[in-house]
Design brief:
mainly alpha, Growth Hormone, Chain: A, about 80% helix, globular, MFS, MFS_Efflux_Transporters, transmembrane helix, MFS transporter
Amino acid sequence: MDPRAPLVIALGLGQVLAYGSTYYLPAVLAAPMAAELGLSVSTAFAAFSLALVVSALCGPRAGAWVDRHGGRPVLLASNVVLAGALAAMSQVHGPAGLFAAWALLGVGMSLGLYESAFAALVRLWGSDSRGGITGITLLGGLASTAAWPLSAWLLTRYGWRDACLAWAGLHLLLGLPLHASVPRARSAALAHPSVTDADVVPTTAPAPPGLGTTLALAGVFAIAWFNSTAMAAHLPQLLQASGVGLSTAVWIGGLIGPAQVAARLAEFGFLRHWHPLLSARLAAGLHPLGAALLLALGPVAAPMFGLLHGAGNGILTIAKGTLPLVLFGPAGYGQRQGLLMMPARVSQALAPWLFGLALEAWGPSALWLTGGCSLVALALLLRLRALGG
C-alpha cells in the first residue's frame, strides 16, 4: 500500500462528511425546514445561497491559513465550526435564525471543503500532489450517495432538527479524528523533496505569474460550478421539458454520479500521463457535446447527455485542484485557491435561480446557456497555453 494512501483516504472521507452536511443538506431538509418554520422553500434555499456567498468571501483567508499553518488546524477548525452551525440550525425558530445558521455554515465550508483539503495536501507534498488530489475527489464524489439516504433516513425517523444534530455529532466523532491524523506541516521544506525553502508560503500572497492566467482560471471555474449547480437543481425538469418521462429523468440523473467517478478513475489512470490542461480541455467540451446531442436528437440522447455532463464535471473538479498547482506552483496555493473560487461560489449561489428562469422562458433551449458558457470555458483553457499553460 502506498504510504501516502491513508492521508488521501482521511481527507477524502472528510470531504464526504463536509459536503454531505452542507452542500447536499438542502435537497433533503430544505422543504421540511421551510414547512415547520412557515417559510417558502425558495427562502430556505436562499439561506443556502447565503452560505455559498459567505464561503466565497472567507475562502481566501482560509486558504492563507492553510498556507501559513498547514491543513491540520484549519480542517479541525472546520469540524468544530460546522458542528456548531448544525447544532444552532437544529434550534432555529424563524428566518433570522435560519439565515444566521447558514451563514455560520458558510464559514465552516470555507474552512473544510475541497479547496482546504487540496491545499493541505499541497502544503505537505508540493508539486507532487496531483494523484492525491484525484484520490480525494474519488472519495468525495460519494458524498451525495452517502449523504442523501442518511439525511432522508434521519428525517423520516427523527425529524430535520435531530438530523442536523446527528450531522453535528458526526463532525465531532468522525471528522475530528480524521483530520487529527493529517500530519503537521513543517515550516521549511515539507514532505516532498522537490519543495524547497523558496516554496514555503509567505504571510502575504505571492505575485501571480500573470493576471490573464488568474482571470481565465477564475472564469473557467465559475462556469463549471454554474453548470454543475444548475444541472443539480434542474436536471429532472430539463429532461422532462425535452420529452423524457419523470421516472426516466430520475434514472438519467442517477447516471451522473457514476459518470463522475468513472471520469475520475480515468484521470487517476491513463489521463494522469496528460498535462492537466489537456484533460481539462477535454472535460470542458463534454457538456456542450451532450447538450448538442440532446437538442438535436431529443429524448433518445438524454442518457448520453447525463453521462457526458457527469464525466466532464468529474474531471473539472480535479482540475480545480491541479490547474492552479501546475500553472502557479505550490507557493501560496491555498490563498490562490480561495481567490480563484470566489467567483465560482457566487455563480453557484445564482445558478439555480438564473437557470430556472432560463428553463421557464426557453424550455430545453436553456441548454444553449450552459453549453455556450462551457464553450467560453474551453476557449479560456485553450488560451492558457499562451498565458502560462
